[in-house]
């Protein structure tokens, strides 16, 4: 009889996890409150249960006699995942004694300060009225959400009240954070932790759209490796290792985003899970290191099953350059898609994760967060000019048309950013 694995969440980014688990001979059970969540179509069994309903999921796990549980790509499901696995006596790379440091942005800042790393400067929520005009722009966001949900860039005091209401409404704890809006280079560092050792797996420069006003600056793509890799390794990596070891992380994967102002790195938004950005796809395609398989292995056996020597210097991507190209859509219904098959056929295209198809609708609530992403396209190149050419081809050939024959593409990575 096949062993059973329960996967929390069923969005498009979860589909590769379901497929990999089935390839590994497992019976895959997926839970998500949305009956139409796309990953359910690929599973052996699915249930319309909210991933936050730990009592219901513990009961389901007991009833189905599951052998393992794993989380998809949603930050809000990390704590429930740890709770469910712990209660059922299953393997989990997250532990209750430290998981709050990597899921709550306020607690994360406390850990950063303890290990002499820089959090983004924040403002006390109890003294909103005392914030001076020269402190703006500010970013207001939930402390326990991700993907840009509930975030607002405030350019003046008049915007604060509605921004706080939005952030609070999207927060599990019904709270909010106020941070300095960082207008400088943006980065993402992705780590693999095995048996207490911390390895830098990928490091990238992130680029965000400037076309959505006060909404969260949604990513339009990333460049690998980061042009700031040398400084990061010298100034930040040793402290990150000390912090993760100090709070007790022994195994798992973790993404931390950073701002870099040319002198200091400022850490923000930890993600103790697979990322929507999909750095793991580049690792798999270029380095033959499969994070999805590793996490499933851990869920089943308590071991990532990877030789640590293979994790050393994986962020260098064997000397290649790479990029993720995020395609953001405007509001509307997708009527036609042109050029995507031609793009997929190129040998430099490593993977395409498509989220919208003909007939799908982009709603108002999706604008200003990662739900408006049509697809993420992962590419490689031998040099900078080739990378630019590859991005240019995507930009010039991909067309997405709505029911009124209008162009639905709002923004995507531009070759000039390379």
CATH class of the largest domain: Alpha Beta
Q: How many beta-strand elements?
A: 21
CATH superfamily of the largest domain: ATP-grasp fold, B domain
Q: What is the second-level CATH architecture of the largest domain? A: 2-Layer Sandwich
DSSP strand content: 25-35%
Bulk shape: globular
Major β-sheet annotation: 10 strands, mixed
Note down, in words, how this protein is organized:
The protein has twelve helices and 21 strands. With 418 residues, it is of the alpha+beta class. It has three domains: 4-92, Rossmann fold (3-Layer(aba) Sandwich); 121-180, ATP-grasp fold, A domain (Dna Ligase, domain 1, 2-Layer Sandwich); 185-417, 2-Layer Sandwich (D-amino Acid Aminotransferase, Chain A, domain 1), CATH 3.30.470.20. The strands form four sheets. Strands 5, 10, 11, 12, 13, 14, 15, 17, 19 and 21 form a ten-stranded mixed β-sheet that branches. Helix 2 (54-64) crosses helix 3 (78-88). The longest helix has 14 residues, at 384-397. The relative contact order is 0.11. The mean pLDDT is 95.
């Amino acid at each position: 009889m096949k062993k059973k694995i329960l996967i929390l969440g069923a969005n498009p980014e979860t589909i590769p996890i379901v497929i990999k688990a089935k390839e590994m001979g497992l019976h895959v059970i997926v839970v998500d409150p949305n009956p139409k969540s796309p990953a359910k179509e690929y599973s052996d069994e699915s249930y319309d249960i909210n991933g936050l309903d730990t009592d219901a999921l513990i009961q389901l796990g007991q009833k189905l006699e599951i052998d393992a549980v794993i989380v998809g790509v949603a930050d809000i499901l990390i704590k429930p995942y740890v709770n469910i696995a712990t209660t059922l006596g299953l393997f989990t790379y997250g532990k209750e004694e430290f998981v709050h440091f990597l899921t709550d942005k306020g607690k994360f800042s406390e850990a950063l300060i303890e290990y002499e790393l820089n959090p983004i400067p924040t403002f006390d929520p109890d003294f909103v009225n005392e914030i001076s005009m020269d402190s703006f722009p500010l970013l207001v966001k939930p402390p326990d959400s991700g993907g840009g949900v509930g975030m607002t860039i405030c350019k003046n005091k008049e915007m604060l009240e509605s921004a706080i209401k939005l952030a609070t409404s999207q927060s599990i704890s019904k709270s909010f954070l106020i941070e300095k809006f960082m207008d400088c280079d943006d980065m993402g560092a992705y780590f693999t932790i095995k048996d207490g050792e911390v390895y830098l797996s990928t490091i990238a420069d992130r680029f965000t759209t400037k076309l959505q006003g006060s909404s969260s600056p949604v990513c339009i793509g990333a460049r690998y490796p980061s042009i700031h890799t040398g400084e990061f390794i010298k100034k930040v990596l040793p402290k990150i290792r000390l912090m993760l070891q100090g709070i007790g992380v022994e195994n798992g994967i973790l993404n931390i985003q950073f701002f870099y102002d040319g002198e200091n790195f400022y850490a923000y938004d930890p993600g103790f899970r697979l990322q929507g950005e999909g750095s793991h796809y580049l690792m798999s395609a270029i380095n033959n290191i499969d994070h999805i398989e590793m996490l499933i292995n851990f869920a089943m056996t308590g071991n990532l099953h990877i030789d640590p020597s293979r994790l050393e210097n994986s962020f260098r991507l064997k000397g290649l350059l790479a990029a993720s190209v995020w395609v953001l859509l405007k509001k509307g219904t997708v009527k036609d898609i042109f050029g995507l098959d031609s793009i997929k056929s190129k040998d430099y295209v490593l993977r395409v994760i498509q989220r919208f198809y003909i007939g799908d609708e982009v709603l108002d609530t999706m604008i200003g967060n990662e739900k408006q992403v049509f697809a993420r396209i992962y590419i490689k190149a031998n040099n900078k000019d080739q990378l630019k050419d590859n991005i240019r081809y995507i930009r010039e050939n991909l067309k997405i048309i709505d029911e009124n024959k209008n162009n639905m593409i709002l923004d995507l990575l531009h070759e000039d950013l390379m």
